[in-house]
Amino acid sequence: MLRQGSVPAGAGLFGLVFAAGFVLGTIRELALRPAIGPDAARLLELPVMIALSWLAARWILRRAGPGSAIWQFEVGLVAFLLLMAAELALGILLLGGSLSAFIADLFTLTGLLSFLAQALLIVMPRLAASGTGSSHDRPES
Q1: Rounded Cα gap, residues 73 and 70, in angstroms
Q2: What are the boundaries of each domain within the chain?
Q3: What's the rounded mean pLDDT across residues 90-109?
Q4: pLDDT tens by residue, 52-91
Q5: Helix 6-27 with 38-64: angle, nearest 10 deg
Q6: CA distance to 12, 16, 132, 139, per residue, from 136 (Å)
């Protein structure tokens, strides 16, 4: 059972990260990919997305409270699962991809690194918790 507030906080974190990724992905595809190639463009985007994910997690924690470590992981897990569902839906519905192409991409170095960067979202609220400046704890309900 998820703790109180972890789903809305996770959905908020997902929304912020997905919006940032959508903007950066558009820039990557329209400006960087033609200039430096698809793999280099994706790799260049990774550290920016990791930093933005940390900032988004920090922003969410400032509004929701830092919560317990377990609550922070729940928030990150909700955000990650929503992100994976959105990535898959976007790839299939809007870009004409397939589940097999999505999975096959995970077996490339760039795809694996991208996935690992996205998986960092699970622990990002925990990593960002030290930067919230708040000492109160969310109840364990």
Answers
A1: 5
A2: 7-129
A3: 90
A4: 999 999 999 999 988 899 999 999 999 999 999 999 998 8
A5: 150
A6: 20, 24, 10, 10
